[in-house]
């Protein structure tokens, strides 16, 4: 979710671009149906951990794992691309970041990539390689990267009746390019959501995944400052939001190369979001 982010405020507003995180009491009572990704998985495979529905059955929201002695941290990367950015990619703008992915592999860092369906269509080979690499897991960041609330930092908005379809369209794009078993996790574009959006996605059966540490890598030019923001913010169970789009987040590879050894030196272990969610449910 490329936006002008800097650091978490007291209400989790994300600098100049990531959405304020609101949570409200919702209302439906039905258990959610399986996410499209889960229904496509092999019946013999263990289902990915998800959170139980929130109050009154709405889409649950996950922000961080247990604050336990087990010092785990999840690095998450948003692979952003909107439905109208194809011409910019054709003209040379880099919405991908192969160097970052190579660095994660070199450093053996598990990670969760929140991918838009449009990104997967633009970079099918990379999407497929990420999705089939056991080091990574692919999760849903919408198809079009349009906002699920009004007034979300200038992003176009998805109509309420189209929200679920937008999420399912992204899963369909993943399957089409060969991403197997995308996770039933969804990250709202811009980080913006409200009760209406949570209600609209209840039938999709996804767990909404937010974060508790903002890297500030979007549009940043000082990798050292971004890395320090991450190091200052990480606690056991943290979810860190970064980006996998070179033109809009050019420092991220350097940030990762600095942050990973320092956090490992402090005793942290890198995990995927699925492991944190499993721990939150008492599963390891």
TrEMBL record:
Q: Which GO terms describe its molecular function?
A: hydrolase activity, acting on carbon-nitrogen (but not peptide) bonds
Q: Which residues form the signal peptide?
A: 1-22
- Keyword Signal among UniProt keywords: yes
User: A GO term (biological process) for this protein?
Assistant: carbohydrate metabolic process
Spans annotated as Disordered: 30-64
Domain NodB homology positions? 71-271
| Composition-biased stretches (Low complexity) | 36-49
Q: Which domain of life is it from?
A: Bacteria
InterPro entries this protein is in?
Glyco_hydro/deAcase_b/a-brl (IPR011330), NODB_dom (IPR002509), Polysacc_deacetylase_ArnD (IPR050248)
Q: Which UniProt keywords apply?
A: Signal
**Name of the protein:** Polysaccharide deacetylase family protein
Can you name the source organism? Answer: Streptomyces sp. R28
